[in-house]
Amino acid sequence: MGFDIDFALSTVPAILGAIGMTLLVALASCLGAATFGFCLEILRRPGGILGLVVRFLIDFIRATPVLVWLYCLYFILPFYGLRLSALTVGITGLSLYYSGYLAEVFKAGIDAIAKGQQEAARALGLGRLDSIIFVIAPQMLRNIAAPMGNYFVSILKATPYLAVLAVPEMLGQAFDIASETYRYAEPLTVAGLIFLALALAIAQAVKWLERRLSAPTSR
Amino acid sequence: MSMLDIWLGILQGFRVTASVTLYGLVFAIPFGLVFGVAQYLTTGLARVIVTAVIEFWRSSAVIILLFVFYYAMPVIGVTLPAMAVGAMVLGLNVGGYASQAVRAGLQALDRGQKEAGQALGLSRQAILLRIELPQALVAMSPTFINLVIQLVKATSLVSLITLTDMTFRAKEIAQIAYEPVPIYLSLLLAYFVACYPIALVGRWLERRVNPAREARHGL
């Protein structure tokens, strides 16, 4: 029994059909991770006890595997009577895990803004929240666009973890075909190649974005 | 089931987690060094080939690579033990990232370093081995430490290809006793205990190597 190219090709439409789910998971998780991550960074920034606690939480997230986070949410939440769909658990898990990384991206993005901006906002009488929303965040966006893009690619590459929770994204679809036909090599290889192509394409787009944004601004 | 039973159970998987990490490094370190240097030195077609190999290992989703090699290699007549597949795939994936750090480290060196070597009449090989690489590797050492952490975390995936690592043991215990909360939280803690000391080493290195830069990379 060798590698059957024809069979491999016949699995392409079904696996490719799940690309929408893969992209949905990646986008939703990226948005979730950005939201959590930004909150973590804003809570950590002033320091104090809360800052230390958040800092430890970020370190903890980053020192533990994403697969274990998914298992934790998937098995622990129902124990407390909280029954969520595998998709929701998966997106929440990826969001939580990557928020630890994005918090660092936000930190670097905020650190890169000249200190005078914050002081000027204060001098103009803007409150803490107002200065974050109207002064810091808009300038930060430009600084973080490229690293965010890279993390989006990372998150995309983590979406197949959700197959472990039986979410029907591309790897899950490949496993479905495999268990129906008892042939694992072909559908898995097809899923792998599609993922590789997708990751490379998006990484290229991020590079292009990076070049555009690093062009000098007109003042 | 007492907390001690849970910890002892998870600890039984530590040997496998540690073995996959160490064998993974056996693949990652040579791959990262050789391909990083090759990408730095080559031009034209050779560079395209080197880059393609790196991108294959680096840009693929590691969980899919693991399944593809585990299920597809026997089909083409190569049957390797799960430990070898796990160490190879995880190692080369991390090695792909490491190669980019090696190349970036080499490229970031001041041109004067190479030119001074040439002026002294050193061979290209001597310049690389005795002037460029030592500086580049030291400068990038915090990144390498982060990649080791990434490798330790990625070893949780081998539980999916039947290896009895810490994650596998935790799932096993969870099947015997329905106590997901202490079991999975202990598992998170186990990885944290394994990874956090490595992260602290990385931070210490970061301060040593790059005292000027405040950015807290670690993890």
Plain-language structure description:
The complex is a heterodimer of chains A (219) and B (219). With 219 residues, chain A is mainly α. Chain A has two domains: 1-18 and 168-212, no CATH class; 29-161, MetI-like (MetI-like fold, Orthogonal Bundle), CATH 1.10.3720.10. Chain A is 80% helix and 0% strand. Chain A has nine helices and no strands. In chain A, α1 crosses α8, α2 (19-44) packs antiparallel against α7 and α5 (86-111) crosses α7 (128-158). The longest helix of chain A has 31 residues, at 128-158. Chain A is globular and about 75 Å long. The mean pLDDT of chain A is 90. With 219 residues, chain B is mainly α. Chain B has a single domain (3-209), classed as MetI-like fold (Orthogonal Bundle). In chain B, α2 packs across α5 (82-108), α3 (44-59) crosses α5 and α7 packs antiparallel against α9 (180-209). The radius of gyration of chain B is 20 Å and the shape is flat. The model of chain B is unreliable at 214-218 (pLDDT under 50). The chains are: A mainly alpha (219), B mainly alpha (219). Chains A and B meet through α3, α4, α5, α7 and α9 of A and α3, α4, α7, α8 and α9 of B.
